[in-house]
Amino acid sequence: MAEGDTGGIRSGGAAQGDAFVKREKANEDFYVRDQEMQKLRALKKKIDEHKKHLEELEKNVSDTMAQGGKT
Known about the structure:
Order of helices and strands: H
Helix content: over 70%
Strand content: under 5%
Distance between the termini: 94 Å
Number of strands: 0
Number of helices: 1
């Protein structure tokens, strides 16, 4: 096989290959962390929305109970 053919040794030797592998691994790790952060932000937003809805329901219950006692 000639240098550069599929399966051939890269110029620069093993050190260059290791650097490429490390860079590729770092890029993959960054992508995974970014995706996880986006999912966590979406979950936090949903939690905040549900908390707000729960507060509204609690207020409605309190208002209903207060009106029931006045009648």
